[in-house]
């Protein structure tokens, strides 16, 4: 089989803040931006990798989600426990310095983990945990 990862989904509450973070801080390309107001679906991805992307989507918009589930999602997003993604960079320190120079919440500075991976962590504007490891 020939299966690839095409798109991962992360929630957002403020499309402009999320767009600025992924485009201006991480340097991702904006591939698609549909909808209006807070109901926008924005696809971003790393330059030179057109087949891999992140869909930034408004949370809990599925009509099958109950009010209790919407509340639970909002509470988890507020705590930063709803969405997360793992990224990799060839120069972790350079990426960390660029992210740290903004008002982004740093969760962990670059650290060599006991399992052999050096990584750092921070939160995007929606509270999603972003971990970046040294490639």
From TrEMBL:
<feature type="domain" description="VOC">
    <location>
        <begin position="4"/>
        <end position="135"/>
    </location>
</feature>
<dbReference type="InterPro" id="IPR037523">
    <property type="entry name" value="VOC_core"/>
</dbReference>
<dbReference type="InterPro" id="IPR004360">
    <property type="entry name" value="Glyas_Fos-R_dOase_dom"/>
</dbReference>
<protein>
    <submittedName>
        <fullName>VOC family protein</fullName>
    </submittedName>
</protein>
<dbReference type="Pfam" id="PF00903">
    <property type="entry name" value="Glyoxalase"/>
</dbReference>
<dbReference type="InterPro" id="IPR029068">
    <property type="entry name" value="Glyas_Bleomycin-R_OHBP_Dase"/>
</dbReference>
């Amino acid at each position: 089989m020939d299966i690839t990862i095409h798109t991962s989904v992360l929630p957002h509450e403020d499309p402009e803040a999320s767009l600025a973070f992924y485009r201006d801080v991480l340097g991702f390309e904006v591939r698609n931006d549909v909808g209006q107001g807070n109901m926008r679906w924005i696809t971003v991805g790393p330059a030179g990798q057109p087949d891999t992307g992140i869909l930034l989507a408004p949370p809990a918009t599925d009509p099958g989600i109950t009010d209790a589930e919407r509340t639970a999602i909002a509470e988890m997003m507020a705590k930063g426990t709803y969405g997360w993604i793992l990224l990799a960079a060839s120069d972790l320190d350079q990426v960390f310095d660029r992210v740290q120079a903004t008002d982004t919440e740093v969760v962990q500075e670059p650290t060599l983990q006991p399992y052999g991976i050096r990584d750092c962590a921070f939160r995007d504007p929606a509270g999603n945990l972003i971990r970046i490891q040294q490639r």
